[in-house]
């Protein structure tokens, strides 16, 4: 049949000549190729000591941000939980007391804020939904662990470290 | 024989035994390192500096693993298999000449456990016993994959022993002796047998790969077809013994190849060096040269392993019976003609 793409190439299968059938030259060639690799620099990245650089828009572990005075920005509006396609986020809201103004920016805050890291798909929709710029996926890779319950990260792991410490 | 002689022999046996065990142990480490280097990787580097404690960690793991003997296996033969494999691997080194006679404190000590006049036949006997370990182990496992692996190992070893023996005959025509000690002495300086028997050496090398079940002839352990081959059912140190036996075999067959073809402990300019270093350090240098050659061969075994893919079983048999044996016979005929008529 006529080739339409004009890319058709008829391959000719030649019988092997003596040296090709003897294998040994081919083996010698293969050995020289592997020897070339023997002296190449390994491409391995020694993981815990060395780390590959992440891209700028890498999404890692979440962190709950503080404002310039060190108060938590999150107001427990629940938009992140609502936007989360994996339903990984839950929270319990609480009202700010009189003497807690330096701790929480708005009058309402999240008393409990939990993300299930096994459910999270790191899509970043929570970050986009947040009206207070309180959550960002700017952390490192989420560490492995032994138990499922240990993957539910609370505020102790999520909230940014206080400013002046 | 005096008591002192017996003690010296005993010491020599212990030293050679330890050397072969340590070399086998570090061959496992070297194999992984070499594999890594050939694949642009780093290899084991966590246990100790550069990972040199890796073999100890592996050995410790092997010893501490639970020992499992399958319900349907024959317990006695199941244990005999790996024991036989490691035993036959270890006794091969007895006839290999590791160096010239060495003089220590006025006493001349041969660096060879025993120079029996049929040394090569002894090696062949031991090598063909080696297949029993694999065969018994595979059969006693009562598992079809183990049995298939064992059958493959047995038929492969028997096929390649023939061409190995035939390639040696041509060498014997040149050397006129079966004693490995004498063969080593004949290759004084640079008169290495590989110069007179290049084809014989290549045949022997190919057969050595097949006899030690190394890639490209590692069909008895072909994972893709046979799970683990003859040691599928084995665990803990019994598995360790099988793997260890393979590395000791590699060491011994490297030593045999060096002795038979690559000049044993001889090197060009050895007379000058012996005169310079005296009767104690000269032979030791010879031993170091021999050891270096052996290590090069072990490296070559690994180099080939990470280069050439495995043969198909029919190709393996074709190569053994239709190529190597006719070539070996032709080699014998040509060698005999050359020796007789020239």
UniProtKB/TrEMBL annotation, chain A:
Cofactors, names only: [4Fe-4S] cluster
Main location, first listed in the record: membrane
Bound cofactor: record note: Binds 2 [4Fe-4S] clusters per subunit.
Annotated 4Fe-4S ferredoxin-type domain ranges read 65-94, 111-140
**Where is [4Fe-4S] cluster 2 bound in this sequence?**
84, 120, 123, 126
Q: Which InterPro entries match?
A: 4Fe4S_Fe-S-bd, 4Fe4S_Fe_S_CS, NADH_quinone_OxRdtase_chainI
Residues engaged in binding [4Fe-4S] cluster 1: 74, 77, 80, 130
The UniProt entry lists membrane topology as: Peripheral membrane protein
Which HAMAP family does the protein's record reference? NDH1_NuoI
Which family is it part of? Belongs to the complex I 23 kDa subunit family.
Would you tell me the protein name for this molecule?
NADH-quinone oxidoreductase subunit I
Gene that produces this protein: nuoI
From TrEMBL, chain B:
Localization per Swiss-Prot or TrEMBL: Cell membrane; Membrane
Catalytic reactions of this protein: a quinone + NADH + 5 H(+)(in) = a quinol + NAD(+) + 4 H(+)(out)
Note the topology in the membrane: Multi-pass membrane protein
Give the signal peptide as a residue range, or say none if absent: none
A GO MF annotation of the entry reads: NADH dehydrogenase activity
Answer yes or no on keyword Methyltransferase.
Answer: no
Tell me, how does this one assemble? NDH-1 is composed of 14 different subunits. Subunits NuoA, H, J, K, L, M, N constitute the membrane sector of the complex.
Family (UniProt): Belongs to the complex I subunit 1 family.
Q: What is this protein called?
A: NADH-quinone oxidoreductase subunit H
Which species is listed as the source?
A: Mucilaginibacter psychrotolerans
